TrEMBL record:
GO molecular function: hydrolase activity
Protein name: DUF402 domain-containing protein
The UniProt record lists the keyword Hydrolase: yes
Keywords: Hydrolase
Length: 131
């Protein structure tokens, strides 16, 4: 998972298409969130309903816009938070569509190769150290 400092999103990439679940439909799934806060207990953020996804066919979509609008008023999202979430969704969608970093395949490729190396070591299939 990528949680960039000062940004309002958290992204997951899937290495291969799965038979079920999110990875069956999407190669990249981005939750629009409040900017992450880090302290001694971990990373804290709030999911703000909106999601931006890339399908395995390369299509980019924004999901859950109706849910966001419903919760925005029902839960009283502050206007600044709501505007920031909409801006983050737009920025992520544009970056994903244009295939700019980190949605250009480079970050996902590094993460997948690191995970593959980790799995090989964990399962005893390799003596290579993680890079």
């Amino acid at each position: 998972m990528t949680v960039p400092y000062g940004q309002g999103w958290a992204a997951r990439w899937y290495a291969r298409q799965a038979a079920a679940g999110r990875a069956s439909r999407y190669s990249c799934y981005v939750d629009i969130t409040t900017p992450a806060r880090v302290d001694e207990c971990g990373v804290h953020l709030v999911d703000l309903d909106l999601d931006v996804v890339r399908t395995w066919d390369g299509d980019v979509e924004v999901l859950d816009e109706e849910e966001f609008e419903e919760h925005r008023f029902a839960l009283g999202y502050p206007e600044a938070i709501a505007k920031a979430a909409l801006r983050s969704a737009r920025n992520v969608r544009e970056a994903m569509t244009a295939a700019t970093c980190p949605f250009d395949g480079e970050v996902a490729g590094r993460r997948v190769s690191s995970f593959t190396a980790y799995e090989e070591i964990r399962l005893g299939h390799s003596d290579a150290p993680l890079s």
